[in-house]
Amino acid sequence: MSITLATLATSFLERQGLSQSTIKSYELTLIPLLTMYGRTPVDLLSRQQLEEYLNTLTHLSYTTHNRHQTIIQSLLSFAVEQGYLTANPLARLKRRQPNRDKGEHSSDEVIH
Question: What are the residues whose beta carbons fall under 8 Å from the beta carbon of 107, sequence distance 6 or more?
Fold first, then answer.
């Protein structure tokens, strides 16, 4: 059985135990993705499509970008748990690294 990404996201956000602030944060993160792929059956989304989507988020700081990636990966892991996917298409996707040209740095890095 297949469901759309939008339907999956609704179920994901309606899970027990999520605070209102978490739900709001997840909604704000997922809305741009759902605008592009909300009507797409979740089992038809490819790793390439999802990576290309993440690569369009160049306006975000790398920490925010990584948060978006983590939330989307959690959504897809939820799809696996629910039996809509056999595997998470974004499993083991590397995180975006800090962009030195934008003055970004990782928190454990010494700043000179």
Answer: none
